[in-house]
User: What shape does this take?
Amino acid sequence: MSAPGAREAGDDRAWRDRLLRAVLRERAASRRELDELYCLPVAARVEAGHAIDGLVFAGWEPATGHFSFHAPANGSGFRPGDRLRLGRGDDPWGALEVEWADYDPAAARLTLAVPWGGDRDALERLARRESQLVLDRGDADLSDALTGAIQRVYADGTPHERALREWLAGRARPVADPAGEAAARDSLARLGARGLALRPAQADAYVAAWGTLPYGLVQGPPGTGKTWLLALLLAAWAFRGERVLVTAFTHRAVDNALQHAAALVRGAGGGLPVVRVGARADQHTELERLGIRTARGPAQLPWPAPGARRGLIAGATLFGAARFDGAPFDRVAFDEAAQVAVPQALLGLSAGRRFAFFGDDRQLGPVTAGEPDPGLAPSIFAHLRAFAAPVLLDETFRMNDALTLFPSTQFYGGRLLPAREARDRRLALPTPGDPELDAVLGPEPPAILVTLDHEGYQRHCPREVRAAADLAEDLLRRGLPPHELAVVSPFRVQNREIERELRRRLPPGAALPVIDTVERIQGQEREAVIVSLTCSDPDALRRDASFFFSANRLNVSLTRARTKLVVIGSPRLLATYPRTHAGLVQVDLFHRLFQELPRVDWSARYA
Amino acid sequence: MSGPVPAARVRATDLYDLAVCPHRIALDRRLPREARTPPAPATAQLLAYGLALEAEVAAALGYPQPEHPPGDFAEGARQTRALLESGVPGVYQAVLYDGRHLAVPDLLRRVDGASRLGAFHYEPGDVKAGLSPRADQVLQVVYAGRLLGELQGRDPDHGFLVLGDRREERFPLGELRHVLASAVAQVEAIVERGATGGAEGGAAGSSAGGTAADGGETFPFLGPGCAGCRWRGTCVPDLLARQDLSLVDGMTRTRRRLLVRHGVDSVPALAALDPAAWRAAGRPPLGLDLLTRQAAALLERRVALTRPLELPALPAGALLLHLERDPLDADAVALAAWAPCDARGAAGPAAVRILRDAADRAAAAVELAALLDAAPRPLFHFGGAAPGALDALAEAAGLDPRRQAGLAAHLCDLAAALRRAASFLPVWRYELEQVDAALGGAPLPGPDEADEPAFLYAAFLRDGVPGAWGDALRELGERRLARLARVASWMLAR
Assistant: This one.
């Protein structure tokens, strides 16, 4: 019989190998995916939305360091921060790595940034040499950083790393820290005295995140003020002299949390540094405008002296957080922790000793290319909830009563309720138009299903394009600002066609709403949302069931709207029989959606 | 029994067929049992193993079984009711039958909770040889639960599957009630159409349809389920004779139905179709730009390379690699076969390893890794399943993760390379057997159950005398490698 220590060491080795395999397998899958893509001709890559051709160099912008190009057509799904490859199109593996900064469709102007470690001079030489360039999808190889973090945590290492291994393996469970709980309650009382009274679940979460050792979990369903609560905690900890790091996988999530924290710090009279570490150059001006300083790395941070009364709030992506070794922070808070894969989380775990994880594993998880390891939870949040129940923020300030009902029942055990401020809100726009459109876009019902009995469509359905464009156009003409509307489809080609159709109908230069996949609008909200399900071929859906019928993706699609949600789809998609039990359960969810939403049939209208 | 399945009866097994091929449901009701193609010996062996497992599990439980004349389900249902009313701990092969819907779950077991029967009720379960539950198996249990609910006046909350390793998977039934209702409605429409003699062209049928919304019409369709299907002897010759649209890779049942509805009912008709004109008529796009070119490739039976074939340089030759997963345990690799090949694709002696257990898998992975260590070279394989299978093999061997990644880095998918260079090949499906035949100008092989390693392996592992199955498996591994060698050789010659 082996000693307990030996058993734990074996367990740790198995864990380390599992995490390493996950990273290396993901890397290999990502390479294979790109390899397949790069072998297609440029036209096919462009058609699939993975490339843009015909780029013409327009100049270099000294203020931002960006390179500007004329791009007459952009049918890609590229987004700010995406890693891409710029070259002649014949050999994307040999092309230069760049980062998408911005695209202005009205001016057909594309700006690209030089990524960290990129070769600015080579990019300029290429841009000046070639009359036309091709921009291809790329990827960022993060595997070295990830395997390094895994090796660090699973080396014999410090007591801190040994403790990390204990709780990652579930051998040590979180425990209440009475002193922390008392401090949290004291802080809550002071917030209340300033008129910032938290709702009961928020207060519970506040105490749990503060007063649980070594980590607390807070589950924040859509619109429940998760980021605001996180910012409150960051500020409260830092005002007590703690050094606090907030981290997340994406720049956007880090910036969002820091913006909230900076606003709270300002509101409290300031005097506390809020610092973004490793921001892209083009973000500096905007961050500084918001009162957020920037720093390139740990050495540039204004570390408070030991015993100082004021601490520090720093923010960095996980890859930035990996540069803080030896736990220099008192606390590390992970935002969007359900989008952080377990190996990625290790990047931030060496930066501190106490942790708070904010996330919602009923929404979109980490983006992966390879087959997931069934023995590994999809995210650090899902992994840790096996050992410690999260506190659920149970009031949504976003959705009205009708919009909350289905997600609450299906994803949150009926516990999610609309806050009283949101409960009775309705879309209130003039209704002078088409009675059929009025029936869908009027204040009641807030959530409605528009069925079109089409079949055989897979990633693009012209009938749904017309229906979505009609609805969007009508909402905009009734006065809904474009930034208060989103149109969502699972398929990029469908989104592209809806955008094209809507652009054709609106005056030249008119602003468009966001028209994109659901991944793009996770974390955002709009007054109205139109969802085009598009597909009506069960055989095709059977192949792609885990993507199309994903319950988490559906949840995010249904929970962006404040007052109006229109789902367009064909009932034919319900005749799909996936191969797995989990897939079947997800299809059942779509059946429930089709049964429970009020419905109008527009098959004749769009015959 | 020699007649077809009574037309109007909906059986639990129909729910499986609905997902695989709805046409089976119709043929079961239309044609006599004698017209069925008997299962290949390996499949029969596997079926026998499943039955033996079921009997073994039942014997251990000691549940009574309703006794009734074969086919007399009304009597079986009466007996079942009596057993349930008496409060027995469980029932083996209970008959749940309401005059139209029939389920014979392997097990019912008593659980607490009031029902019409008393302070208890029953929940349904099945015994399955596989190690992970399939969707159709779960759905059949849900179906049994629905019939059981009517009988005992209370829907059971849960159902269960006893798997091949005796593990039990228990699951809530309510989370699939809408899918079940939809599936039952579709099967009812199909059997209803069978009962009323719905029109279809020929024995195997050729008209459009397939869902309840389409009036329960079904049609034969070349698919992965054909290899082990009891009706392949009827459908497949018919599909080939008519040059059915389902022979075109990328076709789906819905696409076929819509094409037939608009008069495009064969491969030649599809090849002649102008996708632009089709779209201009306001019809669904159906991916016709690709389908018409695939149909044309089939008709022309010509392999045309439109771009250069890109393969790695082979200073040390390559290894041809073929891996098969265990059909009953998707996490395990069952067969590993490899052979060296030179820069022209000429293959050396084949190594075929049948992997019974973790030790066999570990040995195969180590052997393969050692070969690559001794002479690093590409691992030629065909199709997207190899990377996952190789990972599973390496993990079974406990290879260091970096070494495992290094092993996978040698993989080179000939299927992908070929399709990149010749986008459309004259095959029904982009599978090794088909591509090999197409490149060699041979007739395309039809779906052949005897060539299914899954059945052979299952029979090998579960049969008391594995010699014959082992030989068959080894031959199969060698056959696959020979095909892979021919494909590699063809590609390297270009």
The mean pLDDT of chain A is 92. The longest strand of chain A covers residues 51-61. DSSP finds 23 helices and 24 strands in chain A.
